[in-house]
Amino acid sequence: MNRICELFNIEHPIVQGGMVWCSGWKLASAVSNSGGLGLIGAGSMHPETLVEHIRKCKQATSKPFGVNVPLMYPEIEKLMHIIVDEGVKIVFTSAGSPDKYTRFLKDNGIIVAHVVANTKFAIKCENAGVDAIVAEGFEAGGHNGREETTTMVLIPHVRQVVVLPLIAAGGIGSGRAMLAAFALGADGVQIGSAFAATEESSAHIDFKNMIVNAKEGDTLLMLKKLAPARLLKNKFFDKVQEMENGGANFNELRQLLGKGRTKLGMFEGDLNEGELEIGQVSATINAIKPVTLVMSEIVSEFHEIKRKFNDAESTF
Amino acid sequence: MNRICELFNIEHPIVQGGMVWCSGWKLASAVSNSGGLGLIGAGSMHPETLVEHIRKCKQATSKPFGVNVPLMYPEIEKLMHIIVDEGVKIVFTSAGSPDKYTRFLKDNGIIVAHVVANTKFAIKCENAGVDAIVAEGFEAGGHNGREETTTMVLIPHVRQVVVLPLIAAGGIGSGRAMLAAFALGADGVQIGSAFAATEESSAHIDFKNMIVNAKEGDTLLMLKKLAPARLLKNKFFDKVQEMENGGANFNELRQLLGKGRTKLGMFEGDLNEGELEIGQVSATINAIKPVTLVMSEIVSEFHEIKRKFNDAESTF
After folding, report:
1. What are the chain A neighbours of B177 within 8 Å (beta carbons)?
2. B48: burial class by Cβ within 10 Å (0-12, 13-18, 19+)?
3. pLDDT at B308
4. pLDDT single digits (tens) B65-75
5. Of B152, B247, B316, the CB nearest to A151
6. Which residue from B151, B176, B247 is facing A246, i.e. has the nearest CB?
7. Nearest Cβ partner of B156 from A177, A217, A306?
8. Centroid of chain to Cα B97
């Protein structure tokens, strides 16, 4: 039995990444209903919005689902108590230390996974008592580690230092990449971009179409002087790049960024002025599909390639 | 039969990347004698030095070996004629268009592979008539693609658009990563950093020790306003970073770089002022080993993990 399937009581070891402005109850429940683990992305929700999404998700699926909580969320205490009060059973924490809330969540009977970008934090996770680790590589969309370590290098390294169930994230949008993640030592995968572009994603349709049209090199890791984030090229990106190339400092970049840029772009569809977060794998996403199709394509390619591996002659 | 083994007539589908200041006849012949494909890195050699290395390599191994030629080499015509005159049978070209020399080399009975960092050039390779493609991800050491596409994303994408034998490069230093590359669609792997730190590498011993001590995040892609290169952090790196953060332009960076910085660091062992090129995977290299040991560790881990894959229950 696969450890991730066992831990979360799901059919396929595929977690849908909690993403700002993309992953509400519709996406999370669709992924859970397809046999994966759907996550509501609390990062872009007011506390009362999160309550609504948790309740709707429960109505939309009888399968396990979870909530992703970025630990730098301003009203984090409020969020944590909502999660407990609403009876959420699975929480993925990110963008902070696993020491902060793991004990609190575990004491409330919640399964905890924490997202890391290096081995130092992976070891911290194990010491903090989390149940699973998500190790996310440089190719992932949105916020990203300062080490810039890619999934190919990160996963075998993390596998060397921890024994916990390990979920690979970053650059995974196909059955081939999922199988590669298993070869690297992961027990499951977390997929973001491919789900951001689905019918059930709450992203603006114009942003979804832009993901579908994205080409190689259309995302780069930017804003390294603030907090590194992988952005899709648009007018706002060009401004950031121009200022960074000119040597802009923290405050100048902070001022350019302003407030609400991801909402503006990803949710409201202002493709010029908005901040568009998506992974490198967007270059290989070519259509807006329903979640069931994305899931079945990934799972069937995974098994097809795996079968070829069982024939020693065809590989090596 | 594996297509890369068949094409080059080698036992293991492992190519040793041609690297400046690391891969002379000693390293190339050791890799070839261990069943892989050794490459002499012509990029850091004067024409007469290349002649010497080709002749010594022939004496040191009866197995196939090749020469890697960066196409921006100043005396490229001279180099190409040496390769033909000395009877080299395999050439890997990089850092330029495959249209330039593929026909010339093929007309002289030479097997040609070309290194790319995106699908556009992979398709160009196929049209130019090369025999195999090396697709190299962002995590690789030294010069690197502007798209910053990682191996995890690049390989399945290239596999979609070309049918030629495909060699994955970037972030591969273990049997796990090699198996992952096969899952992604590669027929073989090219390994640089792990061989740069071997006993047979011509790199300075102090540089080898620095590779062994490198930690996560100790390499970053720098000099993007010139030609992007992955460098190991040292005093020179810090100067580059400081100037880049301050908005230095092409000419200012060109002047800082000057001439002969890679030789100074990698060959002469000036770890402060030299330019040290190495891949992200250096974080997982912990000892200077002989080539035979590096090869056997990678090959045996590859087969061990592959055997586990054949047991469906243990994965998914």
Report:
1. 152-153, 156, 183-184
2. exposed
3. 86
4. 999 999 999 99
5. B152
6. B247
7. A177
8. 17
- A201/B152 Cα distance (integer angstroms): 24
Q: Is the model's pLDDT at A222 over the cut of 90?
A: yes
Give the pairing type, strands A65-70 and A38-41. Answer: parallel
Q: What contacts B74, CB < 8 A, 6 or more positions away?
A: none
Tens digit of each residue's pLDDT (9 = 90 or more) over A69-78: 999 999 999 9
Asked if residues A232 and A274 have their Cβ atoms less than 8 Å apart, the reply is no
ipTM of the complex: 0.97
A96 close to A70: Cβ distance less than 8 angstroms: yes
Question: Chain B interface, mutation test: which of A2, A146, A150, most B Cβ atoms within 10 Å?
Answer: A150
Interchain CB distance below 8 Å, A176 and B159: yes
Largest CA distance in chain B: 58
Q: What is the pLDDT of residues A165-194, one digit of tens each?
A: 999 999 999 999 999 999 999 999 999 999
Q: How far is CA B152 from CA A74, A272, B94, in A?
A: 34, 29, 21
Rounded distance between C-alpha atoms, residue A48 and residue A243, angstroms:
37
Per-position DSSP letters for A28-49, written without gaps between them:
HHHHHHTTSBEEEEGGG--HHH
Which range has the top average pLDDT, A304-308, B237-241, B304-308? B237-241
Chain B environment of A181 (Cβ under 8 Å): 180
Q: Residue B1's pLDDT is what?
A: 83
Domains of chain B and CATH, by start: 3-202+286-315 (3.20.20.70), 214-280 (no CATH)
Residue A14 burial (10 A CB sphere; 0-12, 13-18, 19+): buried
Q: Classify the C-alpha dihedral B79-B84-B86-B91 as positive or negative.
A: positive
**How far B184 CA sits from the closest chain A CA (Å)?**
5
Q: Report pLDDT for B313.
A: 56
- Nearest one of A259, A245, A249, A213 to A232, comparing CA atoms: A213
B194's tokens: 């792990």
Cα A229–Cα A232–Cα A237 angle in degrees, nearest 5: 80
- Distance, CA of A75 to CA of B215 (rounded, Å): 35
The tens digit of pLDDT for each residue in A227-246 reads 999 999 999 999 999 999 99
Q: How is chain B classified by DSSP, letter by letter?
A: --HHHHHHT-SSSEEEPP-TTT-SHHHHHHHHHTTSBEEEEGGG--HHHHHHHHHHHHHH-SS-EEEEEETT-TTHHHHHHHHHHTT--EEEEESS-TTTTHHHHHHTT-EEEEEESSHHHHHHHHHHT-SEEEEE-TTSSEE--TT---HHHHHHHHHHH--S-EEEESS--SHHHHHHHHHHT-SEEEE-HHHHTSTT--S-HHHHHHHHH--TTSEEEE-TTSS-EEEE-SHHHHHHHHHHHTT--HHHHHHHH-SSHHIIIIIT--TTTS--B--GGGGG--S---HHHHHHHHHHHHHHHHHHHHSHHHH-
| Angle (CA) B160 B161 B163, round 5° | 90
